[in-house]
Design the sequence.
C-alpha cells in the first residue's frame, strides 16, 4: 500500500500510532522524552509531504518538510524560506518466537541554519563584540528503535504487552541535544477483565552537546537530563479513561534537585 500526505501535518498523531509505547501524551506517557522524543530537526507540526510505502516485511517512509515549526501559524507565510528538512525511515516487522516485533531505523537531515555553540565563549568574553556566528553544518539525526511484544492475546493480537527502546544521536551543533535514549515496558493490562486498560513504565536519558556545556560553564553547570515515568490508564467506561501518572526527573541544571510530579489525567472519548 502506498500513501501520500500533503499539507500541514501533526507529527504527534504519528507517534500515537506506535503499538506498544503509544505516545503523544494522550493515552500513555506524558513526558515528551517518552511520548514524542525530541530530535531537534523535526518540529511537532510541519508543512510538507510524507510518502509511506507499506510492504512486507519492511515498510518505508520519506518526508520532505519545512524545518520551521508550523505550530500557531499556517506555515504558508514563508514556506521553506529558511531551509528544507528530510526524513527517511524503515521498519522491519518480524515475529521472533511467534510474537510481533517492530525494528526501525531513521535518519534526518536539514539545511536549516543554527547558532554555532563553539562561538559561546567569544560571546561571553568581555572583549567579545556580540556577533552571533551562524553555521551551515547541515544538522543530522539518526536513531534505531525496537518494540517487541512479550505477550499477545491469541484471540486479539493487538492486545498484549512488551518492551520498547530507542537510541538516537545528532551532530550536536547546531542541535543542542547530542544523544537521547529511552527504554521501557508497557501495553494493555494483564489484569483479568481489564482488557481496555493501558500501562507503561519507562526511563530516559538525554545528553547536551559538549560545545554548549563547556561554553556555558562560566554561567551554568549543565548535565545530562534523566527521568522515569509510570502510568496506568483505567478505562472506567468505553468513553471515559482516567490515568494516574508519576514522574521523577533530574533536570539539565547541575545543582537543581530531582523533581517528582504526580498527576491525574481524564479523557472523554466521543
Sequence:
Amino acid at each position: 500500500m502506498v500513501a501520500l500526505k500533503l499539507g500541514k501535518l501533526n507529527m504527534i498523531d504519528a507517534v500515537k500510532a506506535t503499538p506498544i509505547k503509544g505516545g503523544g501524551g494522550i493515552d500513555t506517557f506524558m513526558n515528551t522524552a517518552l511520548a514524542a522524543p525530541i530530535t531537534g530537526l523535526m518540529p511537532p507540526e510541519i508543512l510538507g509531504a510524507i510518502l509511506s510505502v507499506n510492504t512486507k516485511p519492511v515498510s518505508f517512509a520519506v518526508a520532505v518538510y519545512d524545518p520551521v515549526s508550523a505550530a500557531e501559524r499556517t506555515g504558508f507565510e514563508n514556506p521553506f524560506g529558511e531551509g528544507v528538512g528530510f526524513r527517511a525511515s524503515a521498519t522491519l516487522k518480524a515475529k521472533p518466537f511467534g510474537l510481533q516485533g517492530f525494528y526501525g531505523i531513521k535518519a534526518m537531515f536539514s539545511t536549516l541554519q543554527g547558532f554555532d555553540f563553539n562561538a559561546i565563549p567569544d560571546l561571553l568574553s568581555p572583549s567579545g563584540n556580540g556577533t552571533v556566528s551562524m553555521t551551515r553544518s547541515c544538522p543530522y539525526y539518526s536513531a534505531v528503535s525496537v518494540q517487541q511484544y512479550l505477550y499477545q492475546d491469541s484471540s486479539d493480537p493487538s492486545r498484549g504487552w512488551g518492551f520498547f527502546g530507542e537510541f538516537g544521536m545528532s551532530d550536536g551543533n547546531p542541535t543542542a541535544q547530542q544523544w537521547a535514549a529511552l527504554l521501557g515496558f508497557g501495553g494493555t493490562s494483564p489484569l483479568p477483565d481489564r482488557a481496555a486498560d493501558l500501562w507503561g513504565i519507562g526511563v530516559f536519558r538525554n545528553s547536551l552537546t559538549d560545545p554548549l556545556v563547556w561554553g556555558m560553564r562560566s554561567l551554568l553547570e549543565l548535565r545530562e537530563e534523566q527521568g522515569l515515568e509510570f502510568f496506568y490508564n483505567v478505562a472506567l467506561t468505553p468513553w471515559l479513561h482516567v490515568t494516574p501518572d508519576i514522574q521523577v526527573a533530574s533536570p539539565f541544571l547541575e545543582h537543581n534537585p530531582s523533581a517528582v510530579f504526580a498527576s491525574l489525567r481524564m479523557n472523554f472519548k466521543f
